[in-house]
Amino acid sequence: MNTDILQEVGLTNAEIKIYIHLLELGPSLASKLSQKSKVERAVTYHILEKLIRKGIVSYVVRENRKYFSAAEPEKLKDLLIEKEASLDELIPELIKLKKPTEQPLSVEVFRGKEGFKTIMEDLIRDKKPYYIIGYTGKGPDIAKYWYAHWNNRRIKNKICRYLLIHKGNENMEALKYPLTKLRILSKEAIQDAKTSTIIYGKDRLMLFLPLTEFAGIRIINKEIYQSYREYFDILWKKSRK
What we know:
about 20% strand, two-stranded antiparallel sheet, 10 helices
């Protein structure tokens, strides 16, 4: 498989090697990646950190150990928006390498602006309405011009968003986009005003954490999704327009 085009995305040869191995192996420890790629462990950690920053690798902590995973290959397209390059021929081959997740519960951590973009692109790919508890409108602060472009694509795809916001946030600029339905959380709804919970797809939940740099936790599990979806409906009914 010719991976030269990945260099146009901005990946180094070492980063390409680690990313490809992650697709093949599935969730892996850095030590296993180091052995597979024949790259020193310290260097492997450094490469993984860079890939996390670019939004194409995430990790989950199990038993105090980090297991790293490759993001969906489609994320690579996002990195080429400004360069107008095409990955259409390469992506099908990468998808074949992606080891399917066998676990009924998946928890991934995303960080930085690119991590934020990865999650938001997931919403576009789903092409269905999504629901947010405690919407904070921080998208423009994280990636201002990109976020505006993203919203235009959301509207073009006719994706409606249902937002529960805290009193006092009614005039946020980010609320002015079309296909937005919102209600104000009631006083009885105890929610952290700095944290957002996005409920989308058929089994996905995203927690946006109140840190200086964007950080989010994506949970993929049907039972957890259903629980939060029902909770959203209860809050929606109790909240005022």
